[in-house]
């Protein structure tokens, strides 16, 4: 590629559903930038080769989605602090002989909660459901905001404990009550914010979450986007305010856009236009 236009991509498998091209093109248009941004399907065993092809084609950067965030972390030669803590990367910069890995997921979640949903996380009691990469990628960013309590739960408590042990070394200075709780004990607790970070394949019955966890003054947030999940329906039936993860998707993309272009894009109009679709 000899043109001056900068080239970007999002890599995943599957990838046809990705809204990232629309989001980044909208950000670029708003800021008078002419960029290319494409969705690239990588075979499951070919992620490294796919990335090296993009580098050879003089791409400036790439976003990485499931299931390649851990591989992207291993591929990067330098890591941001958030990427190091999560041990996962969703944004890559290609600079000369360097591949710089970032993780913007936690920043995206916190911004959506604080700026779009008007939730001040400081001193709040938070429950995070899930112990996979999605949960791991956002815990540090939430602890940074100094909630009074962050509880982690999952169907298999061992996974939650493993994440807690890993995060404890990074989060010591925050003075947050960060702990693991068994699903059976949830109905006897109060939470201001309940976040579902599990995969779409698991519904509430399988998670074993009692509907009494939800109440009128809580926000139930689902990282999935594009449809009302059974988790959101259960929460709504108990009077909770609910939100899907579309705002998080746009906000984490905005942080990636800032990393690449050093411009902070406006996000509200993009969220609204995607919601309208």
From TrEMBL:
Residue ranges constituting the SDH C-terminal domain according to the UniProt record: 245-275
Keywords: Amino-acid biosynthesis, Aromatic amino acid biosynthesis, NADP, Oxidoreductase
Pathway the protein takes part in: Metabolic intermediate biosynthesis; chorismate biosynthesis; chorismate from D-erythrose 4-phosphate and phosphoenolpyruvate: step 4/7
Name of the gene: aroE
Family: Belongs to the shikimate dehydrogenase family.
Species this protein is from: Candidatus Methylopumilus universalis
Official protein name in the record: Shikimate dehydrogenase (NADP(+))
Positions annotated as active site in the UniProt record: 69
Residues at which NADP(+) binds: 130-134, 154-159, 223, 245
Lineage, highest ranks first: Bacteria, Pseudomonadati, Pseudomonadota, Betaproteobacteria, Nitrosomonadales
GO MF annotations, alphabetized: shikimate 3-dehydrogenase (NADP+) activity
């Amino acid at each position: 590629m000899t043109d001056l236009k900068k080239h970007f991509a999002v890599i995943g498998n599957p990838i046809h559903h990705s809204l990232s091209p629309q989001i980044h093109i909208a950000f670029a248009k708003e800021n008078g930038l002419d960029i290319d941004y494409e969705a690239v399907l990588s075979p499951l065993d070919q992620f490294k080769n796919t990335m090296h092809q993009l580098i050879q084609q003089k791409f400036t950067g790439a976003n990485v989605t499931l299931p390649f965030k851990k591989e992207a972390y291993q591929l990067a030669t330098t890591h941001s602090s958030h990427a190091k803590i999560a041990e996962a990367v969703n944004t890559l910069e290609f600079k000369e002989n360097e591949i710089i890995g970032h993780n913007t997921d936690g920043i995206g979640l916190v911004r959506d909660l604080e700026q779009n949903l008007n939730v001040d996380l400081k001193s709040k009691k938070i429950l995070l459901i899930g112990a996979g990469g999605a949960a791991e990628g956002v815990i540090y960013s939430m602890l940074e905001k100094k909630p009074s309590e962050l509880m982690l739960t999952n169907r298999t408590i061992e996974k939650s404990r493993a994440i807690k042990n890993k995060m404890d070394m990074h989060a010591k200075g925050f003075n947050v009550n960060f702990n693991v709780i068994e699903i059976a004990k949830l109905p006897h607790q109060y939470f201001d914010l309940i976040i579902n970070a599990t995969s779409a394949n698991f519904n509430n019955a399988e998670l074993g979450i009692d509907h009494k966890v939800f109440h009128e003054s809580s926000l139930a947030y689902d990282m999935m986007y594009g449809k009302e999940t059974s988790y959101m329906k259960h929460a709504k039936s108990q009077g909770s305010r609910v939100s899907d993860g579309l705002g998080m998707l746009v906000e984490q993309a905005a942080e990636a856009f800032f990393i690449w272009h050093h411009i902070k894009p406006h996000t509200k109009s993009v969220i609204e236009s995607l919601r309208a679709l």
